[in-house]
Amino acid sequence: MQYRRTVGDVMTEEVVTLRPSTPFQEVLGLLAVNDIVAAPVVDDDGSLVGVVSVSDVLRHETGMPDLQGQNGNDEGPWGKARAQTAGALMSSPAFTARADWTIPQAARELRRRHVKQLPVVGDDGHLSGIISRSDLLDVFIRSDGDIRREVEQDVLGRILGLDDGTVTLEVRDGVVTLRGHVPEPRLVPVVVGLCHGIDGVVAVDAHLAAAAGQVGTGLRANQKR
């Protein structure tokens, strides 16, 4: 089975955090100095209790509970607009991710929650890292050399056990081109599927034939992320 990267593999472990008692001006300074759009708020035990984002700061600075100017009567949003500490300013409970999530799972959660990053917590609720959109993009923006090595070592070698030179391989701009022979025609779609499963592969162009002389179907499949 191919190894698929998880949130734990790509998350940032050294996280800028706030305490509930962190003063508002210090919150502004930490966000600005570290060039971040949000920071987790943790208690004395390291457990996540909320997140302060730039949106929360803007609510405070505009003096409005929401940025559309629809003030409403809910005391919670008004409290954010008057907040003097991270604890009063933060959004809680926070949307979170787990270290064992797959990259697509984390991407879907970011999109569903309309956020740019998610704190990563363990079963005990302790903060273990943070995952951002850019972290996820880095998984797919891989060099052709990295992709080639993974196809050669994992797909052609470790999984299929093909002899060296049986299949020639070229990777250009994330497109994997395969030429050569496989033991059986049924292995052609297997090879294509395994290559598609590698992070960073954009498409697979397979020109493979069965070693016994039976020609496998030439396949081209575009990988959609």
TrEMBL record:
InterPro entries: BON_dom, CBS_dom, CBS_dom_sf, Diverse_CBS-Domain, UCP036990_CBS_BON. The keyword Metal-binding does not apply. Residues 144-212 form the BON domain. Keywords: CBS domain. Residues 11-75, 90-147 form the CBS domain. CDD domains: CBS_pair_BON_assoc. PANTHER family: CBS DOMAIN-CONTAINING PROTEIN CBSX3, MITOCHONDRIAL, OS02G0818000 PROTEIN. This is CBS domain-containing protein. It comes from Streptomyces sp. 900116325. The lineage of its organism: Bacteria, Bacillati, Actinomycetota, Actinomycetes, Kitasatosporales.
